[in-house]
Amino acid sequence: MTTRRSYHRASEGERREDLLAATLDCIAEAGIEGATVRQIAARAGVTPGLIRHYFTTKDQMLQAAYRQLMNGITQTTTAAAQGHDPRTRLRQFIVANVTPPVTDSRTLSLWAAFISHIPLDSAFAAIHRESYLAFLGELEKLLSDFFADGKRTVSAGECRSYAIALNGLIDGLWLEGTLAPDMFEDNEIAGTAIVSVEALLRLPPGDLSLA
Amino acid sequence: MTTRRSYHRASEGERREDLLAATLDCIAEAGIEGATVRQIAARAGVTPGLIRHYFTTKDQMLQAAYRQLMNGITQTTTAAAQGHDPRTRLRQFIVANVTPPVTDSRTLSLWAAFISHIPLDSAFAAIHRESYLAFLGELEKLLSDFFADGKRTVSAGECRSYAIALNGLIDGLWLEGTLAPDMFEDNEIAGTAIVSVEALLRLPPGDLSLA
DNA sequence: CAGGTTATTATCCAAACGTATAACAACAGC
DNA sequence: GCTGTTGTTATACGTTTGGATAATAACCTG
C-alpha cells in the first residue's frame, strides 16, 4: 500500500498563472536553459506531469510566459502615465520606463532570454510585434496629446517618427541603466532621458521637467 | 580491429576559433539551450571530447564566445567610422550601427542570449562592461572631435551625457530595426537615427546629413 | 453520501546531457 | 625512419531531459 501526496485542485486560471510565474522565476534564476519542466514544476509546487495537462508542449508554455511578462510591463508603465495634463503624463511615462520597478535585472534577464528566441521562432516574433505596437501606440497617443495641448501641429508621420525615436532611446537607456546600474549616478539615466526627449522633440531645454 | 577516424591536427589558435565560431552558430540556430557540447562539436567537425581539451568547462567556452562576438561587432562599427572629417566619421558610425551587416538577426539573437546571462553570472557582466565602455569611449571620441571641429565647446560631462544618450538611441533603434525589419521602410531607421542625433545634439536640422 | 469527472500524482521511457578517461593517430625532433 | 609528445578519437558513466501512460485523490453533481 502506497500513500499518495495530498494536493489541492485549483481552478484552471489559477493553475496556469502559477505555472507561468514559476516558469519566469526559473528563467530569471537559471537562464532559459535552466528552466526545465521539472524545475518549473518544483517551483510551482506540483509534479512535472501536470504541466502537460495545461500546455501541450514546453515551447507553448514559454510563449505564454513571454506574453504574460510583456503584458505585465505594459500595465506597469501605462499605469504610471496617469497624470492630468499631457506634459506630466508624458514625463511620468518616460521616467517610469527608466526607473524601478521597470529597471529590474530580473525583468531584463527575462526580456533578453525571450528576445533571443524571436529570430528562431515566429511565435515569439508575433508576441514581440504585438507588445511593440502596443508600446508605440501608447507613446504616439501621449505625444499627440502633448503637441495638441502645446498648440503645436505635428503630422501623423512626424508623430510616428518621434515615437520610433523615443522608443529607441527609452529602450536603450533602460537596457544600459539596468545592466550596469553602478555605472551611473542616481537619477542620471532618468535625467538623461528627460533632457534627451526634450532635445529629440526640439523643445526648449527644461520644457518637460520644469513647472 | 577497429578503424579510427582520420583527422587534422590544428594549431591551438585555429581550433579555438573554430570551436567558438561553431558555438555561436549553434546558439544562433537553436538558442543557448540548444548549444550543447555535442552539437557544437558536430558543427566544428570534431568529436565532443575535444572541447574539454580547450575549455575546462562549457560555461568558460560560452564566455569566450561572448567576448569574440562583441569584439567582432566593435571592429565592424569602428572600421566604418573611417572618413576624414569628424562630421562624416560621426555620421558613418551612426549609420553603420543601424544598417547591415550590423542589423543582422543572427547577431541580435546571439547578443540577446548573452545579455540574458549578465544578471546571472558576473563573468558575463564583466564582458559586457568591457564592451560597453569601449563603445562609449569610441562615441565620446567621435563627439569631441566633432565639436572641436565645429568650434563648439562642450564640457567633458556634457560629452559623456551625450554619449550615453546617443548610445541608448543607437541601441534601441538597432534592436527594433533588426527585430522587425518589415515594420519599417528602407532607410527609415537610418534616417530616424540621423535626424534624432541632430536633435539630441541640438544641431540645426540637416546639419549631419547635408554637405 | 454515493457516483462520475478530471485534475493531479506516480512511474516509466528512450534520448540527450556534461564530464571523465584510456587508447590511438598525427606530427616534430632527431 | 624511428621515437616521444600530444592533439584527437572512442567509449563509458551517471544524471537529467521532455514526454507518455496508468492509477488515484479531490471535487462536483445529484
UniProtKB/TrEMBL annotation, chains A, B:
It comes from the Bacteria. PROSITE patterns: HTH_TETR_1, HTH_TETR_2. Keywords: DNA-binding, Repressor, Transcription, Transcription regulation. Signal peptide: none annotated. Residues 13-73 form the HTH tetR-type domain. Residues 36-55 bind DNA. Pfam families: TetR_C_6, TetR_N. This is TetR family transcriptional regulator.
